[in-house]
UniProtKB/TrEMBL annotation:
Protein origin, superkingdom: Eukaryota
Sequence intervals crossing the membrane: none
Pfam families: Lipase_GDSL
CDD domains in the cross-refs: SGNH_plant_lipase_like
GO biological-process terms attached to the record: lipid metabolic process
Protein name stated in the entry: Anther-specific proline rich protein
Residue ranges with Pro residues bias: 40-86
Species name: Brassica campestris
Protein family per UniProt: Belongs to the 'GDSL' lipolytic enzyme family.
InterPro entries, sorted: GDSL, GDSL_lipolytic_enzyme, Lipase_GDSL_AS, SGNH_hydro_sf, SGNH_plant_lipase-like
Gene Ontology molecular function, alphabetical: lipase activity
Chain positions covered by the region annotation Disordered: 38-87
Length: 419
């Protein structure tokens, strides 16, 4: 029977991101000229009609929409950090696979035509050997930490990196692409790799592994490995509240239902490809990231409530939708993992985690720098990156990622272990 676990979502809140579009376009619109070099995304579903005053139905079948939560001050009080728990040792994972956006992109964007890149200093300054690798961070990111904490390998390479060895491939890779999302329109805007094409790469990868070890062993590796999916932040921050492209077609209730339905479809396709241990990580309180505070937080740069409310709405629907999918699958574990609660608690109680700065990034002013604007020629760095929760105006530091990932591995992994 299908096993299903929900790590309870925290109270959330969300805010709008209208002013984020001009900044985002500074970085990425030019990449649209090179879109033909990025794998063609799957056909986009037809949009629903112009929204009426009342919430519209979901554009595709999915869970019954939950009532939209009322806005509340951000960040919400989250639970105290969960104490470290002993990790069961009766299960090993042959490989780790990562799908989604920049949170788990370990460098795939280096090998496509997009301006959404991080392959230049000071990115990677705290990575082994101090070299930029395409990770949107000063060091390791969650995809690496998951592989490290589970004892698979120290870092997770990007699938598109040339020269990967047989051992590199067999023990797992990342298929993620910075700027991607569950909405097929999201990666088009920045020429990222669509989720559909990440799945195509995964199927290509499986054929390579079959060539290495044979069909039976390859299927065993895929079924016993852990597949992690994290996306949705760019759908909300960039596509819906940024460019407003989808806001003209969907109200937020319908759009988050659409996102959740797309995520569930992705889960089913992973299952059909042979994956049996699949975890979806929800969206964090993105209204509290530095660039959203700058664009939408007013003179005091407060968290942007509307987009945080939308994040919770999506997380709730994602959890319900995955539950529905789980009931249709056999011999698989499908898990929704809440990251909103701990992330909000870290923002609200920074000293508890050793952070002095939680509303700006280490790079430059920390308020707008991200991607090409965060570089060694134009941006000064903070004196102590470990005291900052954010590396640039969008992405957490290696230390913040370590805290978040450690919690997930220590407290949310039990459904994946063999009984």
């Amino acid at each position: 029977m299908m096993k299903y676990n929900v790590v309870s979502p925290s109270c959330s809140k969300l805010f709008r991101c209208v002013l984020f579009l001009p900044l985002f376009f500074i970085f990425f619109v030019a990449s649209a000229r090179h879109l033909e070099q990025v794998p063609e995304p799957s056909p986009r579903p037809a949009p629903v009609p112009q929204p009426s005053p009342k919430p519209k139905p979901s554009p595709s079948p999915g869970p019954t929409p939950a009532p939209e939560p009322k806005p509340c001050p951000c960040p919400s009080p989250g639970p105290a950090p969960t104490p470290s728990l002993p990790r069961p040792r009766n299960t090993t994972f042959p490989a780790i696979f990562a799908f989604g956006d920049s949170i788990v992109d370990t460098g795939n964007n280096d090998y496509i035509s997009t301006l959404v890149k991080a392959n230049f200093p000071p990115y990677g300054m705290n990575f082994p050997h101090g070299l930029p690798t395409g990770r949107f961070c000063n060091g390791k990111i969650p995809a690496d930490f998951i592989a490290e904490f589970l004892g698979v390998k120290p870092t997770l390479p990007p699938y598109l990196k040339p020269g990967l060895t047989q051992e590199d491939l067999i023990t797992g890779v990342s298929f993620a692409s910075g700027g991607s999302g569950f909405d097929p329109l999201t990666p088009i805007v920045v020429s990222a790799i669509p989720m559909s094409n990440q799945l195509t790469y995964f199927q290509e990868y499986i054929e390579k592994v079959k060539g290495f070890v044979g069909k039976e062993k390859a299927e065993h590796i895929i079924s016993k490995s852990l597949a992690i999916v994290i996306a949705g932040s760019d759908d909300l921050a960039n596509t819906y509240y940024g460019t407003h492209a989808e806001e003209l077609l969907y109200d937020i209730d319908a759009y988050t239902s659409y996102m959740a339905s797309s995520a569930s479809s992705f889960a089913m396709q992973l299952y059909e490809s042979g994956a049996r241990k699949i975890g979806f990580i929800g969206v964090s309180p993105i209204g509290c990231i530095p660039i959203q505070r700058t664009a939408r937080g007013g003179l005091k740069r407060k968290c942007f409530d509307e987009i945080n409310v939308a994040a919770q709405l999506f997380n709730t629907k994602l959890s319900r939708s995955l539950h529905s999918v789980a009931e249709t699958l056999k011999n698989a574990t499908l898990v929704y993992i809440d990251i909103y609660s701990l992330f909000a608690h870290m923002i609200q109680n920074p000293k508890e985690y050793g952070f002095d700065e939680i509303d700006r990034g280490c790079c430059g002013t920390g308020m707008v720098e991200l991607g090409p604007l965060c570089n060694q020629f134009t941006s000064l760095l903070c004196s102590n990156v470990s005291s900052y929760m954010f590396w640039d105006s969008y992405h957490p530091t290696e230390r913040a990622y370590r805290i978040l990932t450690k919690k997930f591995v220590e407290t949310d992994m039990s459904p994946f272990y063999d009984k």
